[in-house]
Write a structure and sequence with these properties.
alpha/beta, 9-stranded mixed sheet, 6-stranded parallel sheet, 18 helices, 19 strands, 16% strand
């Protein structure tokens, strides 16, 4: 039987045949823990028979639990197949009912009367091609618009790493040619359903999008996305597809607005209008003129201040282009992912000038979370389901994590999780400080994530060597969608100490699962988390907020959260219930995107 590792390229964890028990000291517990409160739990749901989202989907209220009848928590504890670090297969790699989201949806969503056809063109989609929040946002927004009655498709590269068995009704629908660097490349287009959302997967018959991961293949990534941007428009043209809106995301699809307005709108594609969402202004899509030439445009025509020249390279030899800037200029509407981040990007950064010039079409719309995919009442990855009106199952999820990872699991100890890419934006020095501070003050912490930078990865491997053999800290240098669900459910608090954060999903997902957020006040974090000790708006209070980027500011927030948790257990339980009932779903915010779509669409 294969033995799995929990870390990537870590000298501590060794090869993929390293058992968890080889990495952790496992506390020995001789007394059985029995908890005698009531909970709701159902382990028998079968989600294998999936159905189309428009006609056959099963509807339930968001706050309904998937359970059929209440049982005592003691009964559940007895029946749970408790994991151990010595298990040959880690508990998050066990077989679940389905890889995908539970198809249960709320019934109280009104259908729109003025319907649209929207095609998203994106580099990521959860769960089949997810690296960061981009994939979650695309899936969540698409689902919310579908539920309102709109027609939605997602166009995505058919990465070699995509697991085909996670796509329902997959079929080849067309083969056509798309231009690249003086040649016409044979390209396949497939249709299927992912989470009941229609997808169109673009597969060029060359080296593009080959590799074990979404990003980082041996091909030129920028040129692959230039090809993909044109291939999507070419497919629409050859199939006669005329959506109302083409919604592009990030720099990877930044060339599409240029290609549309300077090429395809002069051919047969004349109805669509373009919306760009910028999820992170850090990535500009730096591009040489000769690279843009390869998708059939004349790169020299865009090397002006009012088009696509990268402002950082003005006066350099050579000057470069920015695909993201070009997309800002050429799109009919530009959206970023929170109102606060909009204000921040107008005041600082290399793209501030372009955004100010196009201020009249620039909008800040807060992201939502996919309330179907992220639902503790029906989440198939959890050992116990729960909901806002009965949170007892959350304690089972916490102990399940503690046992599976070899953490101590007796007594009332706060468990904090940090689920994040390990990059500078996320506040690496603050994450490191939190590890030592939480351990020193009697808490537990689990970090889940990996670093694209080898130096940063090495630093966290050293921290893992230092902490992972104890009984309070786990640093897991990997990413697992299944484990992330379990962490949000088992945690008491979720830490998001970002230096800047355009929106942030972790704090909203955490609240959905009853994990109280501890965040730095920036971007979308400032729009969604309000401090427990802020007397000016007590009705909004839902977490612990700090403003500085220094360790002391974080320490104070952690200390306040710990004090609340340990000294006010009844009040803490009320906070947990309160944050679980906050509606951060896409159902709440999708209407703002639909307003943007309608403001630019061509009628008739």
């Amino acid at each position: 039987m294969e033995v799995a590792s929990i870390a990537v390229s870590s000298p501590m964890f060794g090869t993929s045949r390293t058992k968890l028990s080889d990495c952790f000291f496992v506390p020995i517990r001789r007394r059985k823990t029995i908890i005698d409160r009531k909970f709701l739990f159902n382990s028998t749901n079968d989600f294998s028979n999936r159905s189309s989202i428009d006609l056959k989907i099963r509807a339930v209220h968001l706050d309904e639990v998937a359970a059929d009848k209440p049982e005592s928590l003691a009964g559940l504890v007895k029946d749970v197949n408790w994991p151990s670090p010595s298990d040959e297969i880690p508990f998050w790699k066990r077989k679940f009912h389905t890889h995908d989201a539970n198809p249960e949806i709320p019934v109280n969503i009104e259908k729109d009367s003025d319907l649209l056809h929207v095609i998203h063109v994106t580099a990521e989609m959860a769960p089949i091609a997810k690296v960061g929040g981009l994939g979650d946002v695309v899936t969540g927004l698409a689902r919310a618009c579908l539920l309102r009655g709109h027609k939605v498709d997602i166009m995505l590269p058919f990465y070699e790493c995509i697991q085909k068995d996670n796509i329902q009704e997959l079929s080849l629908v067309s083969t056509y040619n798309s231009y690249y660097d003086g040649k016409w490349i044979q390209t396949n287009a497939y249709r299927g359903l992912v989470s009941d959302i229609p997808v169109i997967l673009i597969e060029p018959m060359n080296q593009f999008f080959k590799g074990e991961d979404v990003y980082g293949g041996s091909y030129n990534e920028l040129e692959a996305y230039l090809f993909f941007s044109r291939a999507c428009l070419e497919w629409m043209q050859v199939t006669g597809t005329q959506p109302d809106v083409i919604h592009v995301h990030e720099w990877q699809t930044g060339a599409l607005p240029l290609l549309y307005w300077d090429m395809y709108c002069y051919l047969s594609l004349q109805k669509p209008r373009i919306v760009l969402t910028i999820h992170n202004m850090e990535h500009y899509g730096e591009c040489r003129q000769e690279q843009l030439n390869k998708c059939g445009l004349d790169g020299s025509l865009y090397a002006t201040i009012d088009k696509a020249i990268d402002d950082r390279t003005i006066g350099h030899n050579p000057e470069r282009l920015s695909l993201l800037k070009g997309a800002i200029v050429y799109s009919n509407s530009v959206v970023t992912v929170s109102p606060t981040y909009l204000k921040e990007t107008l005041c600082s950064g290399w793209l501030a000038s372009a955004l100010l010039t196009n201020r009249d079409k620039y909008h800040g719309i807060l992201n939502g979370i996919d309330a179907v995919m992220w639902n503790p009442a029906s989440d198939v990855f959890l050992p116990a389901n729960y909901h806002a009106h009965n949170t007892d199952g959350k304690e089972v999820c916490k102990q399940y994590l503690q046992r599976g990872l070899g953490l101590a699991y007796e007594g009332r100890v706060p468990l904090i999780v940090c689920i994040s890419r390990l990059v500078a934006q996320k506040g690496l020095h603050l994450i490191k400080h939190a590890i030592s501070h939480i351990e020193k003050h009697g808490g537990q912490m689990i970090v889940l994530g990996k670093a694209p930078d080898g130096r940063v990865q090495g630093e966290f491997e050293a921290l893992a060597n230092l902490h992972n053999k104890g009984s309070t800290i786990r640093i897991l240098l990997m990413y697992s969608e299944e484990l992330s669900h379990m962490l949000y459910a088992g945690a008491d608090m979720v830490l998001v100490p970002s230096i800047y954060e355009p929106c942030g999903l972790a704090q909203m997902i955490g609240m959905r699962y009853g994990s109280v957020p501890i965040v730095r006040k920036t971007g979308g974090l400032a729009d969604t988390v309000f401090d427990m000790d802020d007397q000016s708006q007590p009705e909004m209070a839902n977490g612990f907020v700090f403003e500085g980027i220094d360790e002391g500011s974080l320490s104070q927030a952690l200390d306040r959260a710990f004090s609340y948790y340990k000294e006010k257990p009844i009040e803490w339980a009320k906070i947990v219930q309160k944050v679980m009932q906050i509606d951060n779903s896409w159902n709440k915010t999708a209407s703002k995107y639909i307003d943007v779509y309608n403001s630019i669409r061509v009628r008739g």
